[in-house]
Write a structure and sequence with these properties.
alpha+beta; seven-stranded antiparallel β-sheet
């Protein structure tokens, strides 16, 4: 897969819930590999961004699979961890609003409130149960991707539309967007 296989709003599939995976097959393992290839291809086309994670729905597969980058700080580390049927079993810490973007929401970033710590259970590609604690940016990324498996996109969490939406300028800096002028009535942002 390539970046061209990543679907974006207003594609209605992004609003559907993904199905639980009952048997981990070679097709599931191949889907994970394809998702990693698409995420890295997208990243290679973006000078100022990394591909932190991706959910299967973003490549138009309604299955509960997410991939999460192993190292968010080093773009040269191109490894991902696959989580199958990921589920948050406990929310902890405080609610923190911070910037998020999404490969399926083109050109728009926003401040999203998320829990600072979570506990997650999932399966790995061999069918083994994984339990992990995540905090900070990793917790935010996992919450974002699990939302995708439930048909939720990060912009759904933004309540205050003033000073909430941003875009990247040519130097990679976030610049505020005006909700009424730049987002609400601007279909080209969603194309």
């Amino acid at each position: 897969m390539t970046k061209d296989d990543i679907i974006a709003l207003p594609n209605p599939h992004l609003r559907q819930k993904s199905a639980k995976i009952h048997v981990i097959t070679d097709e599931v393992r191949q889907l994970s590999a394809n998702m990693i290839a698409a995420a890295l291809d997208w990243e290679d086309s973006r000078p100022h961004e990394i591909s932190a994670a991706l959910a299967a729905i973003q490549v138009d597969h309604l299955e509960r699979i997410i991939i999460v980058r192993s190292d968010f700080d080093d773009k040269a580390t191109r490894e991902f961890t696959t989580l199958i049927n990921p589920e948050i079993v406990k929310y902890e810490g405080e609610i923190v609003a911070d910037f998020e973007g999404c490969l399926s929401v083109k050109h728009v970033y926003g401040k999203v409130p998320r829990h600072s710590k979570i506990r997650v259970k999932a399966l790995d590609l061999d069918g083994n149960e994984i339990r992990l604690k995540a905090e900070g940016f990793l917790a935010r990324v996992i919450q974002h991707e699990i939302d995708h498996t439930n048909g939720i996109v990060f912009i759904d969490h933004i309540r205050d539309q003033h000073d909430a939406f941003y875009t990247l300028d040519d130097s990679g800096e976030l610049q505020p967007l005006d909700y009424e002028a730049d987002i609400k009535d601007n279909a080209q942002l969603w194309d």
